[in-house]
C-alpha cells in the first residue's frame, strides 16, 4: 500500500487469513475527509496538514474535523506498524517459533471507526461521538498512542514511519512477548573478538581455526594497545590479516589472500551473530550512549512483505531450507555408499577406512590429491583419484539432492492443487529443469569450479561448507 491511499486504507487484523494475518479496509470517513479537505489544496504538505488538523494547530478547527484528520493518520500509521512487525520478524531469521503475525495483536488494535482526539495536554485519548461530544476511554488505540507521542514540529524529529517503528518495538506487551529474543549491536569484529568457548564449539573445525588466529592476533593487539575501551572494534589491518594467514598455514588451513580471509571471518561472525540472537535476552531497542536517546539500528532489514509477496517469500524460504536439508542428507548417504562400495571391492577394501580422512584433507585443509598420496600412504595420484574421486561424489550428491528437492516440491504442488500425483510428464519435466537450475546456481556450479581450480580451491561453496560440517561431527 502506498501513495495517498495510505491515508484512507487501514490495515486491521484478519484472523481468517492465516497466511498474511491482516487485511486492508477502506475507511469512508477518512477517504471523504482527505478528498474534501486535503487532496485539492494547493502546495500543501499532506502529512503536515493532517497533523496540524489533528493537533488543533489550525485556528477554528472543529472537533469532528480533528478526529477525521486523526483517522486519516491512523490509517497511515497502521501500515507502518505492520511493516515494523515484519522488520522485527526478519531480524530474527527463519528458524524461530514466531512470525510477524504473532506480533500484530499487540499493536494492530484500531477498529477504524471510532473517532478519537487528544486532550489539550496530549496525555489522554478522548472518544468523539456523532454530535461532537467527547468522553474519556480506558481502551487505547495503539495508532493514536503513536500519534500522541509524536513530536512532528521538532527539527530533529524522526519521520512518522520511523517513529511508528520505534514505538512498535518499544510497545510493552510486544516486548514482553519478545523477551526471549534479542541481541547486542556489535560489529563483526567485536563479535569475533569476544567469542566465547561455548560459541566456538558450535563452529566447524576450519572456522575454529579462523577464530583462534583472530584471537591470537587481533585480540592480542587490542589488549597491548589498550584499545579495549574503544567504542568500536576497527577493521583488522593488513598486517594483522597477513599474520593470521601465516598462523593458518601452520595449522594446515590455506587461504590465498587477505581479502578472502576477511570475507571468511565475516562469514564466521554471521554465525556468531545468529548464536547471540538465540542465547541472549537483551532488549531490542538500541540506546545511544552519548545522548541517551533510542535510535534506529542501521543494520535493520529494510524490506517488508505485503499481501502479494508473502506466499512467494514462503516458497523461497521453503526451497532454501529444503535444499540445505536435502544436501546434508545426500552428502551423508553418498559418503556411506562410497565407503561401502570400497569395502566390498577386493582391490580397494583396505583403503575404505582412508576415504573420510582423505576427503577431510581435500575439503578442510585444501590438500591436492598429489599431496594426499604420501599422507595416507597411497601408491600413486591415480589411486588417490580412484578412491576419493571428489568429482564423482559431487555428481552423485547433486543427482540425489535434485531428486529429494523435486519430491518435496511436487508434494507441495499437489497439496496446493497445482498438479495431480503422479504429475503430467510435461509438468514434471518443467519443474525438474527449474529445480536443476536452482540447485546448480545455489550450490553445484561453485562446487564444481572449486574442484577444477586444483590447489587454488576457495572452499567457500555451500557444498564445501556442508562437507566440513559433516567432518567436524565425526
Describe what you observe in this structure.
By secondary structure, this protein is mainly alpha-helical. The chain folds into three domains: 3-177, no CATH class; 188-291, no CATH class; 309-473, no CATH class. It is 57% helix and 5% strand. It is built from 19 helices and seven strands. It has helices spanning 28-38, 46-54, 63-91, 100-107, 142-148, 160-169, 172-177, 188-193, 197-200, 205-224, 238-250, 258-279, 309-343, 355-364, 369-375, 381-388, 390-415, 425-452, 462-473; strands at 9-13, 22-26, 115-118, 125-128, 134-136, 286-287, 294-295. The protein has a three-stranded antiparallel β-sheet. α2 packs across α3, α10 (205-224) packs across α11 (238-250) and α15 (369-375) packs across α16 (381-388). The longest helix is centred in the C-terminal third of the chain and has 35 residues, at 309-343. 31% of the residues are buried. The model is unreliable at 226-231, 277-287 and 292-313 (pLDDT under 50).
Give the topology.
Blueprint: E1 9-13, E2 22-26, H1 28-38, H2 46-54, H3 63-91, H4 100-107, E3 115-118, E4 125-128, E5 134-136, H5 142-148, H6 160-169, H7 172-177, H8 188-193, H9 197-200, H10 205-224, H11 238-250, H12 258-279, E6 286-287, E7 294-295, H13 309-343, H14 355-364, H15 369-375, H16 381-388, H17 390-415, H18 425-452, H19 462-473
Antiparallel strand pairs: 1-2, 3-4, 4-5, 6-7
Helix pairs in contact: 1-3, 2-3, 3-4, 3-5, 3-6, 10-11, 13-17, 13-19, 14-19, 15-16, 17-18
